[in-house]
Each structure stands twice: as structure tokens, then as C-alpha cells.
Design a protein that fits this description.
By secondary structure, the chain is mostly beta strands. The chain has one domain: Outer membrane protein transport protein (OMPP1/FadL/TodX) (Porin). Helices cover about 5% and strands about 60% of the residues. The protein is built from two helices and 17 strands. The protein has helices spanning about 5-10, 280-285; strands spanning about 45-55, 65-75, 80-90, 90-110, 115-130, 145-160, 165-170, 180-185, 185-195, 195-205, 205, 215-225, 230-240, 245-250, 255-265, 265-275, 285-295. The chain has a 14-stranded antiparallel barrel. It has a two-stranded antiparallel sheet with strand order 8-9. Strand 8 and strand 9 (about 185-195) form a beta hairpin.
């Protein structure tokens, strides 16, 4: 039995030495998805939605969609948030809800110097459509052909130190390893996900008469057991609190560019594309990601958004 190459790349039915959680190019805008301690750490009340299509040249390439909200409770110095996530890769998919809680310890409230701790808890439905497994031996009885699903809990934790000018933190967004086994009359398959470990940090350099321009370099390091460390380096420039542009590079040999426009000081529409600049690019194609963020409230909202 020989599976086609795209299916080998896309399925989690065997142990793969690769990142298994969804990736994001614009992770700084919804950082609480990868570190629950970032939930409302900047005291913003925001809602956002993201759609990402990865490896667009490959049929059944990874697709991820999220919709989230975060809220700051000033009297309790806490953050609450949550997001829905749909993720599909070939015949496997997951749909889940995560809720986040963060607690902020202030060292200087006026300069927003705080140490934050966060936890997340969720529940996911993992689905496998065995009928979409493609082989060059269609009658092979060892192939799992059922369309089945399983409900599995999820949990994560994180910590971050945050100021108006910089932040750095660590998180385990999926602290519970997943091993979902699907058994049927024609065979067995399983979806495995292991714990991931993240480090992230960034710096905001503000300049201009009213600090209306911002230059923000950032880094995101990712590690999963039995896989190499992957690091994203990014730099974003915000001009006049309206235009956003950025570039990025990943040690997985991926280049990224992003562009965004702020509208009426409350909404941000941004788009990012990336590509693998190795010989595999012609087979994988580009990655596309679009995000919409709406800010309901923020500190000094009309000055520093």
C-alpha cells in the first residue's frame, strides 16, 4: 500500500516530526490564542476573526478559521476571553471552543508594567473522514473508510511580562496530549497531537510628534517533542495609526509579508501571505491569511490604538 505524497504530508495518522497546532502569520494581533496570559493584558476589549489557507497548491491543504473575543475587568485586574476554532487538513478536521482566564499583577499601573498568568480550557471534536483517504490500491481492506468523530478536552497555560513598550512570555497552548483512535470494520486510524512549548516576545518603538508611528519587532519560538525548534522573526511598522506593513522570516524557510488598514480607529483589516522558498514551493504554493479586528475600548483609545 502506498499513499500519495500529499496525504502523507497532511495526515496525523503516524508520528510526524513537525508542528501539529495551527500556525498564524499575524499572531501578534490575537496572541491570546497561543498564550492565554495575553488575554486582555493590554486592557483592550476586542473581537477578531481569522481565516488562513496554507499550501494552496495542494488539494486538502490546511485551513484554519478562528473567531474570538477578549475582555478586561478593570476592578478585578483580570482578563476573560474565548475563541472558536475550525481546523481542517485533508480528511481530518477539528472544531472546538476555548475559554481563557488571565490574572494581572501590576507593578506600575500608569506605565502598564505587569506580570500576567493565564489558563485556558476547551473541548474539541476531532473528525476523520476515512472515505477521503486516497491510495493507489482502492480495494485495500486495511484502509479505514468510516466517517467518525471524538470529543476530547483541551487545556493550556502561560505567563507573560508586559509593558507599554515590550513584552515576553512562555506558554503551553496544548498541555494535554491527544491520541484519538478510530476503529472500524475495515481498519484503524488515529490522530495524535503532542504538547507544544512556545516562547514569544516583542518591542514597540513609538515615535513622531504624538507617537503616531510604531515600529514593532517580535519573535515566536515553537517546539514540540521530537521536532526541531522553529523560530519566527517579524517586524511590523504602523504609520500614522492607519497603515500597517510588516515582513517576517521563519527558520522553516518561510518568508511572510503583511499589510493592513485601520478604519475609523476601531477596525483593522489585514492580510498576510507567505511562501516556502525551497524547492518545495512549486508543489506547496502560497499561504494566505486574512484577519478582521474590532476594538470596542482601549486605554487612551484615540491616542494610542
Amino acid at each position: 500500500m502506498k499513499l500519495y505524497l500529499p496525504i502523507i504530508l497532511l495526515l496525523f495518522v503516524a508520528e510526524l516530526k513537525a508542528q501539529q497546532l495551527p500556525l498564524f502569520s499575524q499572531y501578534r494581533q490575537n496572541g491570546f490564542v497561543i498564550n492565554p496570559a495575553l488575554t486582555a493584558v493590554d486592557e483592550r476589549l476586542e473581537a477578531n476573526a481569522t481565516y488562513r489557507r496554507q499550501w494552496q497548491q495542494i488539494p486538502g491543504g490546511p485551513e484554519t478559521a478562528t473567531a474570538g473575543y477578549r475582555h478586561f475587568l478593570e476592578d478585578e485586574n483580570m482578563g476573560l476571553g474565548g475563541y472558536f476554532m475550525f481546523d481542517r487538513t485533508g480528511p481530518t478536521s477539528s472544531l472546538g471552543l476555548n475559554l481563557m482566564y488571565s490574572y494581572h499583577i501590576d507593578f506600575d499601573r500608569r506605565k502598564a508594567k505587569r506580570l500576567s498568568f493565564g489558563i485556558s480550557a476547551g473541548i474539541y471534536q476531532f473528525r476523520l473522514n476515512g472515505a477521503e483517504l486516497i491510495t493507489d490500491e482502492p480495494d485495500d481492506e486495511a484502509i479505514f473508510i468510516n466517517n467518525v468523530s471524538k470529543i476530547i478536552p483541551d487545556a493550556g497555560l502561560g505567563v507573560v511580562y508586559y509593558t507599554d513598550n515590550y513584552y515576553f512570555g512562555a506558554s503551553i497552548p496544548q498541555a494535554i496530549s491527544i491520541n484519538a483512535k478510530f476503529e472500524g470494520d475495515n481498519g484503524m486510524s488515529e490522530i495524535r497531537r503532542i504538547a507544544h512549548f512556545y516562547l514569544m516576545g516583542g518591542y514597540k518603538y513609538k515615535f513622531g510628534p504624538q507617537e503616531e508611528h510604531v515600529f514593532e519587532p517580535s519573535v515566536w519560538a515553537k517546539y514540540a517533542i521530537h521536532s526541531p525548534v522553529n523560530v519566527d522573526f517579524n517586524a511590523k511598522f504602523t504609520f500614522d495609526n492607519i497603515i500597517v506593513a510588516g515582513l517576517g522570516y521563519s527558520t522553516s524557510k518561510t518568508m511572510m509579508a503583511e499589510f493592513g488598514v485601520k478604519m475609523a480607529q476601531r477596525a483593522l483589516l489585514s492580510y498576510a501571505f507567505s511562501f516556502h522558498f525551497s524547492d518545495y514551493h512549486s508543489y506547496l504554493g502560497f499561504n494566505h491569511e486574512i484577519m478582521v479586528t474590532y476594538t470596542f475600548d482601549a486605554p487612551e483609545f484615540y491616542v494610542d490604538y
